[in-house]
Amino acid sequence: MTRKKGASEFSLQMIDSDTFRSVLGRFASGVSIVTARDDAGVDHGMTVSAFASVSLEPPQILICIDHSASMHDLLLDHPRFGISVLSSEQEAYSRRFATDPDTGRFDGIAYSRGDSGVVLIDDALAHLECGVKQHLDAGDHTIFIAEVERAEPRQGRPLLYYRGGYAQLER
Known about the structure:
Helix content is about 15%, strand content about 40%. The protein starts with 16 loop residues before the first helix and ends with a strand. The chain is built from three helices and twelve strands; from the N terminus they run H-E-E-E-E-E-H-E-H-E-E-E-E-E-E. It has a single domain, classed as Electron Transport, Fmn-binding Protein, Chain A (Pnp Oxidase, Chain A).
């Protein structure tokens, strides 16, 4: 028999960031590159693993971006972005777009432009072009909720991030 405890019987303890990071590392996530263009037409991109579906009708996704990330302010001011969901062969791209500074990230990488002009990485598992509908501050990140305006799936295996490293799905 299970006994329900009243709110006063529970003791909530704050956990430290290392423990929290370790726990969340047990959740495998896909890896994607988010891209946008600034007012001068310069392309920017960054690696993002905090990406998820929000709604099927209308089609919406979310990305979570650290306030200190190089693209944070750009995404606040530019409502369109692209997402390239990386394949298992694109680990080097993930590493390149995860480093700062933003300069030179696109050098030598094959890509096309979406209908909105954003960069979409060639040979990715999927491409999405999105328009930001709202953003919410959440701790040290901003959650960007966007409507998917165009999407294209492709064949291949996903690049995964698990316990602080890259992993591949075996099927």
